[in-house]
Amino acid sequence: MTLLADTLDIIPWGVKNSDLISDTGLAGILSKPCGEIYYVLSIFTVVLAFVGLIQGAYKVSMGGDLTGLGTQLVMTVLASVCLTYIPIWVLNAEIVLGPMLLSDLGCNTKDVYDHFLTNLCNDVLDSIPGIIVDILLGFFFLGLELLGVISEIILIIAFIFAAIIYVAIIIGYLVQVAVVYLALAVSPLFLGMLLFEKTRDTGFKYFVGIVGILFWQLGWGMGYKMVGATFDALRNMLYDNGALCAINVFCGGIISAAFALTECFLMWAVLTKAPKIMSDAVTTGSQVGTGMVSAGASTISGAASTAASVGGQAAMIAATGGAGAPAAAAGAAGGGGAALGGPK
């Protein structure tokens, strides 16, 4: 099994399908063992088809009509065709529903992420005047200098998150490729289930699940683009409002820094939660929009609770002279896990 279209990018930043299907590429590494598993399990599909025909013939011999046997013959022919072409169909569909569709919709992941990095740099530039002002005024107003320091810390955290997201996006695409290959490897078992009425529903659900996996890239692309468009609108609102710009400068660029960190959190939410949202939409018909908004809201609320927890624990450490440090570390770790979508 190989990815057939070698002129399109599955993974951004210059990783071509031709790289993937080489002997040392991920798909090349997975292709041989998954192809061997597929070939071995195909025997089960053949056996199940043969058993189904015998079962249908037996029912006819016992006085049943030919409808059941005719249906079984049609299903057997369809299964034999699918057994040959399912890998080709699925792997080509990954190209069509991934990079080709995203390109047509203007949601190319590389371009969207580059736009995200541009926004981060603009947030830094917007924060610099405020930080300088607060440092100068900090000699007279200690609180303003503290706001400038907070803005710097937020921006540093945002850029660390951006670097993590950069690596995680590439890993996410590699994971999708691996999941598709592994799903195809065991698909002959579920293809055989389609031949029997009692197990047909399970077989259909499995293949619908594979289709859901193919839409992961669409979920990522749409999510990234919506996040970018939202923060473009927020930044335009900030630039067009003189009062907000003045507050931003006077408060050390805290608004721009908050935009940068919030956008990072939402990009992370899209990366980690869009695959499940898209799979659920295909398999159960759940709403993509509500799922995306809910995922973003839960990530932001988790991050806010983490920040509040860290602030509270820091105050406790200061009040107790360091005696509460172990409990503070445990509380901060629990809040961080919740913010990133992990267990609380």
Helix and strand topology:
Elements: E1 9-11, E2 15-16, H1 17-20, H2 26-61, H3 67-105, H4 109-137, H5 142-185, H6 187-193, H7 197-214, H8 216-240, H9 242-250, H10 254-284, H11 288-320, H12 325-339
Antiparallel strand pairs: 1-2
Would you kindly provide a written description of the structure presented here, covering whatever features stand out?
The chain has helices at 17-20, 26-61, 67-105, 109-137, 142-185, 187-193, 197-214, 216-240, 242-250, 254-284, 288-320, 325-339, and strands at residues 9-11, 15-16. A two-stranded antiparallel ribbon has the order 1-2. Helix 4 (109-137) runs antiparallel to helix 10. Mean pLDDT is 76; it is low at 1-24 and 324-330. The protein has 2 domains: 29-286, no CATH class; 287-344. The chain has 344 residues and is an all-alpha fold.
Give the structure's gist in a few sentences.
The protein is mainly α.
List keywords for this structure.
344 residues, elongated, disordered N terminus
How many β-strands, per DSSP? 2
Q: Biggest sheet: strands side by side, in what order?
A: 1-2
| Domain module tally | 2
Mean pLDDT across the residues is 76
Instruction: Report the major sheet.
Output: 2 strands, antiparallel
What class, by secondary structure content? mainly alpha
Q: How big is the Rg?
A: 27 Å
Count of DSSP H/I helices:
12
The succession of helices and strands, N to C, reads EEHHHHHHHHHHHH
